[in-house]
What does this fold into?
Amino acid sequence: MARREEGDRPFPPGDYPLVVVGSGPGALQLTYSLTRLGVPHAVLSSDDAPGGMFRHWPFFQRLLSWTKPYAPAPRGTRTYERYDWNSLIADEQDFRAIQPTLMDGSSYFPSRPEMERNLVAFAERTSLRVRYGCRWTGTRREDEANGTTFVLETTDGEYRTPVAVFAVGVAQPYTPPFAGAELTAHYADTRTPESYADKSLVIIGKQNSGFELASGLLQWARRIIISSPSPTKLSVDTRSLVGVRARYVQPYEDHVLGGGVSIIDAAMEAVERSPTGGFLVRVRSTAGGETMTIDADEVISATGFTCPLLDLPDLGVTTFGQAKVPAQTPYWESASLPGIFFAGTIGQGAVGLKKHGQPSNSGAVHGARYNARVLARHLAATRFDMERRRPSIRPADLVDFCQGEITGCPELWHQKAYLARVVSADPAGGLLDEGIQPLAAVLDGGASNAIILTLEADGTGSIYPVVYVRRDGVVKEHVFDPDPLLEYGSDAVRDRLLEVVRAVVPDAA
Amino acid sequence: MATQEEIADAIAGMALFADLTTPQLQGVAHRFEERFFPEGERILRQGLTGSGFYIIIDGEAQVLVDGQPRATLGRGDFFGEVSILLGEPPVADVVATRPLRCIVIGGPDVEGFFVAHPRVMFRMLQAQARRLRNATRWRS
It folds into this structure.
């Protein structure tokens, strides 16, 4: 897409009540939701078109997130979103479930160009306004009597705002420090597959990126050794998105069957040039401590990415973990610098309860899109004094409402033990649908009697409803039995729901 | 922020990991995740299932039973293991009383970790024995 002329470009430098930085899925979903709520804001992006990292990665062309063109629920319904991980979510029927309309049927994993077209189509059809070609280059804060103003320095000039949301991805290549690290190429610098023909490769790292490269180069490389200190985790073993996804497991099978791929648990010591023109890679086994030296033609660091936060840590944004993700409140606000929020994959810094070690899906589109919508509603309510919509529920309808949510609510299915449907049960105010909220926020921050609905997983492969009931300030957890077909519309489930909610709504039916 | 290399350095000085070699420490740093909790945030929730095993890298936390303070935890202390070992929800809240950095593994990974690192399990048992002895003295 050609860069627009200045006359067509929205949001010139100046003062705005809210500024969003980014144009990937997280930023697009957020600006869509803010716009529909009537929240005034500007959106800036260094790119020339929507799509974020999908304009460049993954190398081997297909995403890890699926969209099922044919699913148990009709396209365009809320329930269908459970089967479509890639479309952004719209209020208008015409703009829902865009991704399946752009796929050619060769796979239920969209190709990278199909994903990019999905995002461009959403932005165009919903008339999203973004100032493209405007790179955020630095940040200042000005503390005044009436509050803090953030000044975002960009290639187009300065933007002043009390609230900034950064949706800039986790896409800055990271290589850990070891002797000779500069001799390795990062995953981000991978060349065309045929250029690795007949090469002996060492790939450092056992995350998806390392296994993606190994999978894509199996038919090209002469030998592949994958090394990192800890053992390989496979998603089919962890029963979550933690670990190497099933699509990239082929190098693992090649390894265990002795096909020429080796996977070792070893800490990197050094990489040196060898006299023959290649590299000598020295590692130490994490089990026995013995040193190994490996000859390689090339060494690739598939050691992950960090957040491109520029100077935000200097302003007070605390980060954690290898990816330097900002520590966040349950509503994705910096835990150390109020007024700075995050959306998109960076939102994984709001970790939530992570029950049974199961992470949220905030690092993927199908989790981040719901976070963005919740964040938009939160910003509208807390920063723009817009009243939150809270439809009332009749006690006679409560159990049907709850059962409908645990069977068909996409937020609960995609953000397990992370996002919750909340019904407040104030004795004086009746039953109110409080919408979707972060589970950590509602458990730790709420006070009113409430019914809090989630779906959860415990790493055994089961997915089951959990209902939290808060009465007089005390929260009680009710874990439902898992159903092998994941069907929770039965009379038995209804009876259990009735029994549970009657603790706070005696006349529920 | 701590890289895995910095976490390996940080835990090298803790009694729990005193018997591990440098490559083993790096393996532990890869296996655990770092978490940061601002002051006032709950880390363990009394009565709720699914918690993890936490080791404090920096900061301070308080153990509360029914809202009443029972103990203060600091660098090198660990918590969450009892509910995982017994398969029961925690009997206390743990709340950050100062900005807190921990490393954590989820409940389902704890058994595999201890079986793979018996010297860490032994050191944990020693620490548990000290807690039990102190509790017995306090009661008698």
Notes: DSSP finds eleven helices and 25 strands in chain A.
